Amino acid sequence: MKYYPISIDSTDKKVLVLGGGQIASRKIKSLLRGEFEIYVLAEDFDQDLVDLVRLYPHRLHLKGQVLRKDFVFMGYDLLVIATGDPDLNQAMEDYAKTKKILYVRCDKRGDSSFIMEKILQRGPIHGSLSSDGLSPTLTMLIGQEVQDFLEGYDLEKLDLLTQVRDKLMDLDPQDRSQIVKDLFKQDKDAVKKYLEEKNEDQTRDPEEQPSSGSDPASGQDA
To answer: Spans of biased composition, class Polar residues (predicted)?
Structure first.
């Protein structure tokens, strides 16, 4: 696996995008899901990009400019090379390598220092999907199947389970994990009931609490 999937903090990171066509537009839409500040240089811009500027006026900046092979730049954390000129793309790739700038080239993977994978998200759950050589069509179809699977998760139930975990921080990690696993298999009402009982236990006078109790998640003595 040449490209290892990893998440980075996008806060205060600056991205330079060279090119203003549909490919650049798709990459920018993906980048906007993070907190990057994005600068785009191109002679012309796809209408989608013009529309996006209205939605993200403080994070997306377009500048009309004719790009040439001797173009130089600095001060950016990431570079996206997406012009329609292969020779220009090669020149920008060579420059990025020389300056050790992290870059992705969109017309061919080449020696790109990173790739932009398909992002899958459902509430707090998010991940990415890379085809690593599969056709873009197959990647799209598989990605849609995975996204459809994620859509089946009840976000309220996941939030309740997170609250349960927070209530159990004083337990051994293995015991805490097992309780969450058991509750995950039950319906949302069972999770709500367990959480309500834990809340009641924590607000009850310590002298009123039983010396031993049962685990509502398993129905057995704790």
So the answer is: 209-222
- The tokens for 215 are 């685990």
Task: Check: CB of residue 105 under 8 Å from CB of residue 83.
Answer: no
What count of other Cβ atoms lies within 10 Å of the Cβ of residue 106? 21
Contact assessment for residue 40 and residue 103, using Cβ atoms and an 8 Å cutoff? no
Burial 195-215 (b: 16+ CB within 10 A, else e): beebeeeeeeeeeeeeeeeee
Picking from 12-16, 97-101, 196-200, which range would have the lowest pLDDT averaged per residue?
A: 196-200
CA angle 193, 196, 198 (to 5 degrees): 110
Nearest Cα neighbor of 19 from 74, 52, 63, 51 is 63
3-class DSSP state of 159: helix
Q: Where are the alpha helices (H) located in 59-187, listed in sequence order?
A: 86-99, 136-151, 155-167, 173-184
- Is the pLDDT score of 168 beyond 70? yes
What is the pLDDT at residue 208? 55
Is the pTM above the cut of 0.85? no
Say if CB 77 and CB 53 are below 8 A apart.
no
CA distance readout (Å), 156 to 9, 153, 194: 26, 9, 15
Q: What is the pLDDT of residue 182?
A: 94
> Across the strands, what pairs with 38?
15, 60
- The token pair at 210 is 């039983």
